[in-house]
Design a protein that fits this description.
This protein starts with a strand and ends with a helix. The chain is an alpha/beta fold. Helix 1 runs parallel beside helix 6, helix 3 packs parallel to helix 5 and helix 4 packs antiparallel against helix 12. Bound molecules: ligand 9D3. The site of ligand 9D3 has 16 residues, from strand 5.
Length: 382
């Protein structure tokens, strides 16, 4: 990932980011940072880049031309169009979904304003995204750019080690992290919770989940409104598909449940879900001759939702060269209709989870919907 920062204070960006994990990532070459001083593109001999606002008022406004020239110079270096983010208090407030979306770009141009802001006309021509880092007033966009670079870098392959990799994000379930403990076992008379010393991993996971929910209720009840319990109901043809489905579920949630509908017992039991659930239905696009049921929808006969948000994963699709539509449309539509009649609200479909990029985009689209509050939507729909 290449970050290109346009600013009047390049030192501030350089100094702030060349340390710690990001400094190492730059040495390794996973990320690059190029700062461009907008002042170097001033159109007058005094290197002035700001002027009084038309219409009067306090403060100064950054002129269009230097920003434009700085931007074009960076674009020329990249050699193709790149997303250009203007850090501004008037932007979309940054969140994890936006961060992960930006992490999929190869190059990001970050434009930092100072003074009262930048002449609107150049913004109209160069900016693709307006982003704020929160509802408070800063003196300029530099800290915003640094926050964004830090958060986005964590998703660039190689920046974090495997253990600290961004898969288990505390925010991905709209839950806060559980409390952490290290040695000694007793400190200031306080003991480490005994379950953590039990060695029983299932019990530990259950305890951590419970602690996460408790903590979120206490500290961030607003998050809980959008939290959902993810269940993936799947039919896997082989171990490799089972693994892919497990991985996809894990990428979406830390505390998900897996239901193998290839097992008769699971198909026959009552599978009832509410509006606080989220269902991921994963089936092969083409059933083999020895399939336990004759159509995809038959796997989920016993599933009932109550306006439960859900999504479909169709795996094992014919290659793109072949005409997919004729083969896929019919079973996909039938499955969607049955599930809707059973009380599920199908938010999205993923036709090729084999591609990690497609899977990521699918999960991002879903996450965006969850952040926006699928349960609120549910209330207005009803
Ligand atoms: C005090 C001046 N304000 C109204 C009279 C407008 C204003 C202009 C410029 C407020 C802040 C700024 C500088 N801020 C940023 O460039 C900025 C920012 C922020 O202030 N808050 C949250 N996110 C961001 S990203 C860039």
């Amino acid at each position: 990932m290449n970050f290109h920062v346009l600013t009047l204070f390049p030192d501030m960006i350089e100094q702030g980011l060349h340390t710690s994990i990001l400094g190492k990532a730059m040495e390794k070459g996973c990320i690059t940072l190029e700062t461009t001083n907008i002042r170097d593109f001033s159109a007058n001999k005094y290197n002035r880049v700001d002027d009084y606002p038309y219409g009067g008022g306090a403060g100064m406004v950054m002129e269009a031309e230097p920003v434009y020239r700085a931007c074009k110079s960076v674009e020329a270096g990249i050699g193709r169009p790149a997303r250009t983010v203007y850090l501004t208090p008037q932007g979309r407030v940054l969140n994890q979904a936006i961060v992960e979306e930006l992490a999929m770009e190869e190059d990001l141009i970050l434009l930092c304003g100072h003074y009262e802001g930048i002449d609107e006309r150049v913004l109209e021509e160069v900016v693709t995204d307006y982003i704020s880092i929160g509802d408070y007033v800063l003196t300029g966009g530099e800290l915003g750019a640094m926050v964004l670079i830090d958060a986005v870098s964590r998703f660039v392959p190689g920046v974090l080690s495997n253990e600290e990799s961004s898969q288990f994000e505390s925010l991905q379930d709209n839950l806060l992290e559980y409390p952490h403990y290290t040695r000694p076992e007793e400190w200031h008379g306080k003991k480490v919770p005994p379950v953590l010393l039990s060695g029983d991993h299932r019990k530990i996971e259950a305890w951590r989940h419970e602690q996460s929910v408790k903590r979120t209720k206490e500290r961030r009840p607003d998050l809980l409104k959008n939290a959902v319990t993810v269940t993936c109901a799947f039919y896997a043809l082989e171990e490799s598909w089972r693994e892919l489905i497990r991985q996809t579920t894990e990428e979406m949630t830390r505390y998900g449940n897996l239901l193998d509908v290839g097992r008769k017992k699971i198909r026959k039991q009552h599978n009832t879900f509410g509006s606080g659930d989220f269902l991921l239905f994963a089936v092969p696009s083409i059933l083999p001759a020895d399939s336990p049921v004759s159509a995809q929808e038959d796997f989920f006969q016993s599933f009932r939702g109550h306006n439960t948000p859900a999504a479909l994963i169709y795996y094992g699709n014919p290659t793109e060269a072949e005409p997919q539509d004729s083969i896929l449309r019919i079973p996909a539509d039938r499955l969607i209709t049955s599930l809707q009649n059973q009380g599920f609200r199908i938010l999205d479909t993923c036709q090729n989870p084999e591609s990690s990029r497609e899977r990521r985009l699918f999960l991002l689209r879903l996450r965006e919907k969850i952040y926006q509050g699928i349960r609120k939507e549910t209330a207005t729909d009803a």
